[in-house]
Amino acid sequence: DAGVIQSPRHEVTEMGQEVTLRCKPISGHNSLFWYRQTMMRGLELLIYFNNNVPIDDSGMPEDRFSAKMPNASFSTLKIQPSEPRDSAVYFCASSFGQGNTGELFFGEGSRLTVL
Amino acid sequence: SQELEQSPQSLIVQEGKNLTINCTSSKTLYGLYWYKQKYGEGLIFLMMLQKGGEEKSHEKITAKLDEKKQQSSLHITASQPSHAGIYLCGAAPPWTSGTYKYIFGTGTRLKVLA
Questions:
Q1: Backbone angles phi, psi at A86, to 5 degrees
Q2: Residues in Cβ contact with A55 at an 8 Å cutoff, skipping those fewer than 6 apart
Q3: B93 vs A100: CB contact, 8 Å cut-off?
């Protein structure tokens, strides 16, 4: 079975550029999460979708960040404009169930470097 | 809101040695997940503990949940280089108090010397 698929795996960009990260959750999962991981802050929840609807976006750092889930099999996380402090590994995870319980299945992450 | 703190933050052990990682919650903990992350990769589910006193084992890794102490411990017996990585505990509603979010511990970095 295919797991959670993220792209790109690595992205290097210059400050001010737009960055789009993509995620394909596991088929049949109805919850999708975007996390950011840094050495300083560990794993932080950015946004959580349930049945394609954003339920909690309180972790989104600021207006430069936006996320969409147009259908059950695809989500994007966009940063515009990007800043060096956005450099991190961004993970997408999916799960099946009500709310945000249950085992999370993580993608391999997108490592973002903003110069 | 509830927080999970792990100790130690990092650990270096010689191959073959036993080790223990702790996850302590700031509030009552009714259940817990343990994940492992290899460097540069995503998190992989290890096990789930659903009730106080529960103990589970997977290969050489054993985890216990002590509800009264609001703590879980993960024990690795006869460590191997393949055990190296970052171990994270996690909890989600309805096991958490005061938060509806899936929360993670601060992580423990394990290095096993061959």
A1: -85, -5
A2: A48, A49, A100
A3: yes
How many CB atoms are closer than 10 A to CB B2? 18
Name chain A contacts of B41, Cβ cutoff 8 Å: 108-109
Q: What is the pLDDT of residue B20?
A: 97
Nearest to B102 among A4, A45, A108 (CB): A45
Nearest to B51 by CA among B30, B75, B74, B27: B30
Confidence category of residue B97, pLDDT binned at 50, 70, 90: low
Does residue B8 contact residue B107 with C-beta atoms inside 8 Å?
no
Cβ pair A115, A11 in contact under 8 A: no
Banded pLDDT at B100 (limits 50, 70, 90):
low
- Residue contacts between A and B (CB atoms, under 8 Å): 54
Q: How far does B105 lie from chain A, in Å, by closest CA?
A: 8
CA-to-CA separations, B111 to A3, B77, B108, in angstroms, rounded: 27, 14, 10
Give the rounded distance of the alpha carbon of B5 from its chain centre. 10
B43, B48, B107: residue with CB nearest A106 = B43
